[in-house]
Amino acid sequence: MLFPESFEEVFVTLTAKTQSGSPPSAKIFALKHSPSLPSEARPRKVLLLLHGFPQNHTAYYETVKELSKAGILEHWDVVIPDLPGYGRSTKIPSVDGSHYEHSKRAIASDCVALIDTVYGAGQKFVLVGHDRGALVAYRMAKDFRDRILGLCLMEIIPTKMIFEKMNSSDKHRLTMKLYHWIFLAQPTNVAETLIGASSDFYFSQAIEEWTGPRNRGHFDPIAVASWVEQYRNPAVLTSTLEDYRAGASIDLEHDEDDERHGKAAVDCPLLVLHSESFAKLHDAEGIWKPLGTNSVSVKQVGDDQIGHFVAVEAAVEVVSELVSWMNGIMQ
């Protein structure tokens, strides 16, 4: 069992009319933990954890173990969804070709609707995101400024900066590492066909490549199987690719609009966690410090043996930093 028995499965079907004209399309699966003390006998504190690519909610299995050891589960409600379109969640692509339904704005709105459904409209929460989930979280903190008590981002920089850094200045070293941002965003049926022919190979290879030397082959096999095998479902594969297509199109439009209107920075306390290997590619502090108007803390977790999946590979350090930060912002 990857998660404690206190985590129950929930499914939320979203029925709001979609902007792109698609039929109501999202059904979100999540794990939800509630402290044993009844909600009426304690102040409700909610923590939302969003996974990245190519994972699903099980990306946080090690994080939850450490949160439990730290006593967080005794006082916090915790929600860990499969992002719409990933894992057991579903999301129908935009019918107008805009990719809006898989934009970070739409997915962020879906996740807020999940919180509203589970806890009631207006519930505030602390938000943690890794990789694609971090991009959703960043968008959410800009679009729902009155809802987010604190934002923790792991292993990510803003989308526009990713594309800007893919150039020949370093003989395309970074472009080669980030090739999937381009490949997965290709027009419909290109990546579906190429990856679909051997999805187990493609995603197993990606997971191994992005894992640090110390942890290769040592993740829980149940978690790894759930990451790889979800892509045998064509709908999950297409949704994931739509995520990247949105990233190369409408997400950029939304981010550029924020910049034009002075709304690129977040107002809530911001914690940024990254690996040493990430720091060799990106100046996380230089990038994120200007994008927070409240307190901003940028920390490296783990050593040179840690890869991209810090929530699994460096869970002890991640939770140590997270708990210290959460205690500070909730005082």
Automatic annotation (TrEMBL):
<dbReference type="GO" id="GO:0046464">
    <property type="term" value="P:acylglycerol catabolic process"/>
</dbReference>
<dbReference type="GO" id="GO:0016020">
    <property type="term" value="C:membrane"/>
</dbReference>
<dbReference type="Pfam" id="PF00561">
    <property type="entry name" value="Abhydrolase_1"/>
</dbReference>
<dbReference type="GO" id="GO:0047372">
    <property type="term" value="F:monoacylglycerol lipase activity"/>
</dbReference>
<feature type="domain" description="AB hydrolase-1">
    <location>
        <begin position="46"/>
        <end position="167"/>
    </location>
</feature>
<dbReference type="InterPro" id="IPR000073">
    <property type="entry name" value="AB_hydrolase_1"/>
</dbReference>
<protein>
    <submittedName>
        <fullName>Alpha/beta-hydrolase</fullName>
    </submittedName>
</protein>
<dbReference type="InterPro" id="IPR050266">
    <property type="entry name" value="AB_hydrolase_sf"/>
</dbReference>
<dbReference type="InterPro" id="IPR029058">
    <property type="entry name" value="AB_hydrolase_fold"/>
</dbReference>
<dbReference type="InterPro" id="IPR000639">
    <property type="entry name" value="Epox_hydrolase-like"/>
</dbReference>
